[in-house]
Amino acid sequence: MQPTPSPPPAVGPDQIPITIATPDGARPQAIYEALRNQRSELRDQLERVQDQRNDIAGSLKAEDITAPDREGLATRLKETDARILSLEQQIAQADLAVSKAAAVPGAVVPEPPPPPRTGPPEEVIAIPIVFTIFVLCPIAIAYARRLWKRGAAVIAPVPKEVTERLDQMGQAVESMAIEIERIGEGQRFLTRVMSDPNGRQLGAGVAQPIPVPHAERATERMEYRP
User: Fold this and answer.
1) Which of 101, 107, 119, 150 could form a disulfide with 28 if both were Cys (CB 3.0 to 4.6 A apart)?
2) Phi and psi for 88 in degrees, rounded to 5?
3) Segments in the chain forming alpha helices (H)
4) What is the per-residue pLDDT across 35-62, written as a single tens digit (0 to 9) for each?
């Protein structure tokens, strides 16, 4: 036997009763979801009407507004305020209807429990993370700092005494090379004189000129001696 519906509550002139069509045999869960959707829609309408009121109030604050426009905006502002009040009352009634529908057995279905965990335990995952943070990271940082220090090593300059000593050694070697060259030129000159094919040997009498091609070169090197 269907229960006798209770008469609707008395409402004021500005109140709109919340009614929802529920077919016979509707499930309590469906009625509960319908009332929640209706309440959500009423709240969306209230937000839109409040935005309209803010726009109207901002237009009334304009300095270049005329008197007829100001009067029309004031009228719209009053109508918007009345609509906001009506929507707030409807939302209050919708809250009451949702609470009543939630009290019906079977209206609110509990959410299913989360599926059981099938992977490894959290401790197994945490151990490698802790090992990486506290062991591998310091080692990597220390090795990187060592590489940076090695690359940033500054080559020490050669002392001035060593540089001067090397310069002196270079000059001595150069002098020795010049002396050795002079000795070699002298030996070659004597060899050429002694082996003159024309038979002109060194002896008594007036010396005869002997052409020596490399004499001028030897003279230049001897004069170059520092």
Assistant:
1) 107
2) -65, -40
3) 28-60, 67-102, 122-131, 137-151, 160-194, 215-223
4) 889 999 999 999 999 999 999 888 888 8
Report yes or no: 16 and 86 within 8 Å, Cβ to Cβ.
yes
pLDDT > 70 in the chain, percent? 67
Number of domains the chain contains: 1
* Residue-wise pLDDT tens digits, 179-194: 898 888 888 888 877 7
3-state SS class at 204: coil
Domain span holding position 33? 28-102
Domain membership flag for residue 38: yes
Dist CA 90 CA 4 (whole Å): 24
Residue 138 identity: P
In a domain, 148, yes or no: no
Tell me if 113 is assigned to some domain.
no
Taking the C-alpha atoms of residue 198 and residue 47, their distance in angstroms, rounded to an integer, is 133
Say how far apart CA 84 and CA 14 lie, in whole Å: 11
Distance CA 35, CA 28 (A): 11
Q: Helix or strand or coil: residue 102? A: helix
Closest CA to 56 of 31, 32, 74: 74
Quick check: is 76 in a domain? yes
